[in-house]
Design a protein that fits this description.
single chain; about 130 residues; alpha+beta; three-stranded antiparallel sheet; 5 helices
């Protein structure tokens, strides 16, 4: 059973679509079913100012992507590196066991986007100064 919030994000996804000239892009695919999430970030002063996503997959993955885009918006990039699948799942009101991969895909794609901007060796919490 899906929560009303998850169903709302599936039926009315927020921030869906491509972004021209993003500052960062991250993508993750789940081999088990082929679900794919790609996130585009616009970054200003180390914070996510705009998020867009493209997702191909089940309703839970689309909803998790939509909600993940809202969770990421306005956050410092380093906060994306500490985001967990459980954070996304909890914010959605839970996920059935066979759809938990949806939260994982979203988190890993957002983290890939943050790392593509920050650089692969940058430690969590490091400043831009």
């Amino acid at each position: 059973m899906y929560s009303p919030l998850l169903l709302d994000h599936f039926r009315h996804p927020r921030n869906v679509g491509m972004m021209r000239n993003p500052d960062a892009v991250g993508e993750q695919e789940y081999d088990g079913c082929g679900d794919l999430a790609r996130f585009y970030l616009r970054v200003v002063d180390g914070r996510v100012r705009e998020v867009r996503f493209q997702t191909y997959g089940c309703g839970a993955t689309i909803a998790a992507s939509s909600l993940g885009s809202e969770l990421a918006s306005g956050q410092p990039l380093e906060a994306l590196l500490t985001l967990t699948p459980q954070d996304v799942e909890d914010a959605l009101g839970g996920l059935p066991d066979d759809r938990k991969h949806s939260a994982e895909i979203v988190v890993l794609a957002l983290q890939h986007a943050a790392r593509s901007y920050l650089g692969p060796t940058r430690p969590v919490g490091a400043s831009n100064v």
